[in-house]
Every structure is written in structure tokens, then in C-alpha cells.
Automatic annotation (TrEMBL):
One Pfam family, short name: F-box-like
Protein name as annotated: F-box only protein 48
Gene Ontology biological process terms, A to Z: protein ubiquitination; SCF-dependent proteasomal ubiquitin-dependent protein catabolic process
Gene3D superfamilies, sorted: 1.20.1280.50
Annotated GO CC locations: cytoplasm; SCF ubiquitin ligase complex
Amino acid sequence: MQQHVCKRKSDVCVFSEGRPALISQQDFTETLPTEMSVRIFSELDLRSLCSASLTCKQWNDIIEGSDHLWRSHCLTVLAVCRRDVDGDRQDGLTWKVTLVHNYRKGCVKRRWLKGRYSNIRSADDLPPNSMCPLDVETWGEILEAELER
């Protein structure tokens, strides 16, 4: 199968069995309504969503402009740092800002609850990024988990 780039930069001519066929390579965000593009982006996991936002200005504008895309990812953090997420939302912060604020706290809490730091003998033995401000309820959960071990 031969391929020839046409003068229109978004199209490619493919010659199959001697006949030219036009294949469009236009960005789906340029042809679909924004709501449909948001629906497609909503299927991405957090890492892929962040990567997609770096792809081009059009994708970034859609992803950054849609609070809905960040909401579901933020709700996974909600189970970890409920008070912090609720507080950020009451302060009027976007779902993305709320996610960024609370993501690290969620990671730290999960590591503590899984026992990653159970054998630490002193504060000097704590690895970097193992501490951050957490609410009293969270530290209570961590203490209970440690006592059960």
C-alpha cells in the first residue's frame, strides 16, 4: 500500500489497488462538539488525562476547562481525605485544584495505613515525603491501624 501526503496537511492519500482513498487525520476535538470530546477524555485515567492535556493547546483548553473531568479522580481522594476535600469545595476551589491539594495527602495516608512506616524507629528514619499535614481523624485511623499490627 503506497502512501502520499496531500497538500491539505490534515489528510493522507492512500493508494490501494491502484485507486486513491482519502483518509482524514483531523483532530477529533476539532470536529466533535466539546461535550463529546469531554466524554472521550473522561474515559482516561489520571495519568493519561494529564498527558493528554500536554498534547496540544486545543486538548489542554478542553481538559483544563472541564471541571467534570477532574471530579471523578478527586472523588477517589475524597475517601482518603474527606474533610480536606469538603473544605476545598466549600471554599469554591475547582475539582482539579482540590485534587492537586489532596492527592499527596491521600498517598501519604495510604502508605501509613498499609504499614509502610510501621518499622520506623525514629523521625530520622522516615523517608522523604512521608509526612504532611493530616487531620486528627486521619491520624486516629493510622494509630488504630498501627495498634492492630
